[in-house]
Amino acid sequence: MGKSTLINLLVGKLQPIVGTVSRNGSARVALFAQHHVDGLDLRRSSVDMMMSIFPGHNAQVFRRHLGCFGIIGDLALQPIKTLSGGQKSKVAFSIVTWKKPHVIILGQTPRSNHTHKHGDRVQLSQVCSGLSLCPLHCLTLPCLYRVCVCT
């Protein structure tokens, strides 16, 4: 079974041919997919985009959430198309984590070194109350999946 098949089974997009997959109906599961930036409206700002996806909150609430991922100051207000690739990924991750999921499935291992800093591990624990499943793309490692428990 490949990584994508496992991820699709976990999020309910596929049903197993043999066996069963049991999910808690009240669990909040988020998927950070390989093509996470494709869904961003590049003409809008990060704050505007979050306000349209999650209505009922003021801009300051979204700016604070985006700030947890380094999208601070004017970065949160400028069009997403002007952001770097890593910054766009952080905006997408901010959207994925807005509802504080119990489980985050990371369908793409982050490629930039910012995600390995101590501060980012702390930030992940602030937005995830359960665990994240990280399919690793490096075949030289003995384990293909890493589970990170967020406390």
Q: Provide the low-confidence segments as ranges.
A: 109-123, 135-151
Beta strands, count: 4
Order the strands across the largest sheet as they lie in space. Answer: 1-2-3-4
The outline comes out as elongated
Instruction: Estimate what percentage of residues fall within beta strands.
Output: 5-15%
Quaternary organization = single chain
The structural domain count equals: 2
Write structural notes for this entry.
The chain is an alpha/beta fold. It folds into two domains: 84 residues, no CATH class; 59 residues. It is built from five helices and four strands, in the order αβαααβαββ. Strands 1-2-3-4 form a four-stranded mixed β-sheet, with helices on both faces. Helix 5 links the parallel strand 2 and strand 3. It is elongated and about 50 Å long. 21% of the residues are buried. The C terminus is likely disordered.
Summarize the structure.
The chain is built from five helices and four strands; from the N terminus they run H-E-H-H-H-E-H-E-E. The chain is an alpha/beta fold and 151 residues long.
Question: Could you name the key traits of this structure?
Answer:
alpha/beta; 2 domains; 4 strands; 32% helix
Q: Which helices and strands appear, and what pairs or packs with what?
A:
Layout: H1 3-11, E1 29-32, H2 46-53, H3 59-67, H4 85-97, E2 103-106, H5 118-127, E3 131-135, E4 145-149
Parallel strand pairs: 1-2, 2-3
Antiparallel strand pairs: 3-4
Helix pairs in contact: 2-3
